[in-house]
Amino acid sequence: MTLLTHWPLAGLRLTTPRLELRLPNLDDLAALASLAADGVHDPTVQPFTVAWTDVAPEQRARSVLQYHWRCWGEWQPENWELNLVVVRDGIVVGTQGIGARDFSIRREVGTGSWLGRAYHRQGLGTEMRAAVLHLAFAGLGAQYATSGAYADNAASLEVSRKLGYREDGIERHSVRAKPAVLRRLRLTAEQWQQHQLVPVQMEGLPECLPWFGLA
């Protein structure tokens, strides 16, 4: 028997013209942790609802490892978080996540991601989210995908606009002890079909379907 016998998610691959998205191995996680330590956004702003980057570099690195391990250990078909490492030309450039609760009933996923600062403004954010949206809608039969970004996070909001998301209300948060408005976004299966900008190939999905709560 191999790891895939007990953990078929390790064989899941999403590929786009420039990127491969896969479940990270330990070497990938080490590279991702180092990328986080080097910084993933302008330190004068805080784009995340959980301010995990407002700590020392070594704490950021450790939190990346612990978060991935926690998601692996807590995986259940009715409550899952799939965090894929994003690789370009053999180099880890970031991570793209997709998750759901009671997916077999609700048919709704949420997404989140980050890139190392050296890889911003190259269109990679659009490409990697397009990959997991293809997994959600074409692979898993999702009906909706949700996302969110603070009102001043123009880059994230632009990615969502390109991919067909529509406004879905706001939330008020506290960021660094100041009020901040988070814009919720929603994408339907029909809107996704009209905004497929990136060709995506999937490998290893059939074996994983029970892990997503699907027969």
Automatic annotation (TrEMBL):
GO molecular-function terms, A-Z: protein N-terminal-serine acetyltransferase activity; protein-N-terminal-alanine acetyltransferase activity
Superkingdom, natural source:
Bacteria
Q: Which Pfam families match?
A: Acetyltransf_3
Q: Quote the cellular component terms of the Gene Ontology held in the record.
A: cytoplasm
Give the PROSITE patterns listed for this entry: GNAT
| SUPFAM superfamilies cross-referenced by the UniProt entry | Acyl-CoA N-acyltransferases (Nat) (SSF55729)
N-acetyltransferase domain: residues covered: 43-188
Q: Which UniProt keywords apply?
A: Transferase
The protein's name is GCN5 family acetyltransferase
